[in-house]
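Support request from a user on the community tier.

User writes: "When I paste my structure tokens into the form, the page sometimes reloads and wipes my input. The last time it worked, I copied everything first. Here is what I submitted, just in case something in the input itself triggers the reload:"
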């Protein structure tokens, strides 16, 4: 009896190991195929600083891996992480200058559940970049609530010196109220890319609806803003709300939009 139980347990562990290896191999193949266009491309030097704005309850892992991948693929040669404390103090790690090839700044908010405070801190940070580091042009890349923070920044009239926003990437975000009033203040020169996810059989990425993402696109187009839309459809590994910024197909779309 014990011998049969041991054989059954041994068979079960072998099966689980086989499934794990199969899943790992499938993930590796998916990543390699998705990364192929990135590795094959060269990127122009825009000198525009790209600022990554994470979402609700985020941390350095939201955009940190993406920024590292972009550096590895030679889309940039300057990467900086700026941690903003709850009181607004900035701690800068990585590059201290922003004059290289497509400089990237990964912003990390300590108080990542306070959108009004984060918008104020983002505004102060961009003013600091403009006045202290002579950053005159930026791109904004936001995930989820980070896209909404960036949108609020873009549709607010600023009284202090701010960089000019050239391009704006909205990743896994949607409007939660009528945006007509805000969109009247949106700079018409800004080019936008909207990215959403749809898990097979679901209505979106399990956090943001596909219909909401498309409403976002339509609202921007109606306001006369240059907009393109990309929907990644697949398994939760790539299409889930928090998986979209760890997705080589999404990487490729962002890189092409910003630097191709």
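"...and here is what came back when it finally went through:"
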């Amino acid at each position: 009896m014990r011998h049969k139980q041991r054989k059954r347990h041994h068979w079960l562990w072998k099966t689980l190991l086989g499934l794990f290896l199969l899943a790992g191999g499938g993930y590796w193949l998916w990543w390699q195929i998705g990364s192929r266009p990135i590795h094959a491309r060269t990127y122009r030097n825009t000198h525009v600083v790209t600022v990554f704005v994470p979402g609700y309850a985020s941390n350095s892992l939201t955009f940190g891996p993406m920024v590292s991948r972009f550096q590895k693929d030679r889309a940039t040669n300057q990467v900086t992480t700026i941690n903003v404390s709850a009181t607004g103090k900035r701690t800068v790690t990585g590059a201290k200058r922003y004059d290289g090839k497509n400089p990237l700044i990964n912003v990390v908010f300590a108080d990542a559940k306070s959108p009004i405070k984060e918008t104020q801190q983002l505004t102060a940070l961009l003013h600091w970049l403009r006045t202290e580091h002579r950053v005159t042009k930026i791109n904004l890349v936001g995930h989820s609530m980070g896209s909404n923070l960036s949108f609020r920044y873009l549709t607010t009239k600023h009284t202090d010196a701010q960089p000019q926003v050239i391009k704006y990437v909205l990743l896994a975000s949607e409007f939660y109220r009528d945006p007509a009033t805000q969109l009247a203040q949106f700079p018409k020169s800004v080019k936008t890319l909207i990215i959403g996810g749809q898990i097979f059989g679901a209505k979106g990425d399990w956090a943001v609806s596909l219909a909401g993402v498309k409403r976002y696109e339509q609202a921007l187009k109606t306001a006369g803003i240059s907009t393109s839309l990309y929907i990644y459809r697949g398994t939760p590994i790539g299409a889930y709300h928090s998986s979209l910024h760890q997705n080589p197909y999404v990487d490729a779309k962002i890189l092409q939009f910003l630097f191709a």
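Agent notes: The reload is a front-end session timeout and is unrelated to the input. The beta strands are 49-53, 79-84, 90-94, 104-109, 137-143, 164-171, 191-199, 227-234. The mean pLDDT is 91. Escalated to web team.
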